[in-house]
Design goal:
This protein is an alpha+beta fold. It has eight helices and 15 strands. It has three domains: 3-59, Structural Genomics Hypothetical 15.5 Kd Protein In mrcA-pckA Intergenic Region, Chain A (Roll), CATH 3.10.290; 61-124 and 207-230, Alpha-Beta Plaits; 129-204, Alpha-Beta Plaits.
Length: 231
């Protein structure tokens, strides 16, 4: 069986995501880094993904959803002693946040020990959507501003990809983006004349925040994890 298909069947990632992981040199076969997704492999081969044996990878995989409060940073450790998202999820093993939310931004963030899944969810090539609710200053948000957000906003690091934008109220927007630039939603809104007062992420791929209380977390079910792999 081809290596990418083998990893997909083992539950590491979708076939497309597995091809990217392989091409980046994250997979070894028999101790040798393998960058060819079409390489034939079988159960007799010793395969590692992100340095872990394939069997161990499947056994230890966990994913948590956290409703991040404001003031908590989205890193595993913080040199300034601030509280981190990892501090809020008391779980065995070593967890890492999947992407980041600004310290002032609240809402859905994922934590996992599964490097392959984290890569798939954050790599720009997979265009996994993220949905935010923004309360902005200087309402109402007029059609010209909404049109600019939907078509792409020119920022100092380049023009953004088109966003899906829904106006919830005179001062509240729901924006769906698939890029992951630093403070992107805040900068987009400011560029069209509406500085963000509060920002919450309410969905990541197929997963929605729902009624998870602020500061609380829950472990995702196997079905939820599988849907994220298919995003």
């Amino acid at each position: 069986m081809r290596l990418a298909k083998y990893l997909a069947h083992a539950g590491v990632a979708s076939r497309r995501a597995a091809e990217v992981i392989i091409a980046e040199g994250r997979v070894t076969v028999g101790g040798e880094v393998m960058t060819d997704p079409a390489r034939d492999v079988g159960d007799e081969d010793t395969i590692t993904v992100y340095g872990r044996p394939l069997g161990a990878h499947a056994e230890t995989r966990v994913v948590y959803a956290l409703n991040k409060p404001a003031g908590v940073v989205s890193t595993a450790k913080d040199t300034h002693g601030r509280r981190t998202v990892v501090d809020l999820v008391k779980a065995p093993g070593r967890l890492y946040p999947v992407g980041r939310l600004d310290a002032d931004t609240t809402g859905l963030i994922l934590l996992t020990d599964d490097g392959a899944l984290a890569h798939k969810l954050t790599h720009p090539s997979f265009e996994v959507p993220k949905v935010y609710r923004a309360k902005v200053r200087h309402p109402p948000v007029r059609q010209a501003a909404l049109r600019s957000l939907r078509e792409g906003v020119k920022l100092e690091d380049g023009t953004t990809s088109p966003a899906r934008v829904r106006q919830i109220g005179p001062a509240e927007l729901e924006l769906t983006i698939h890029e992951g630039r630093k403070r992107q939603v805040r900068r987009m809104c400011e560029a069209v004349g509406h500085r963000v007062e509060s920002l919450e992420r309410v969905a990541f791929g197929s997963l929605r925040l729902g009624d998870l209380p602020r500061g609380q977390h829950r472990q995702l079910s196997p079905a939820e994890v599988q849907r994220l792999r298919a995003d």
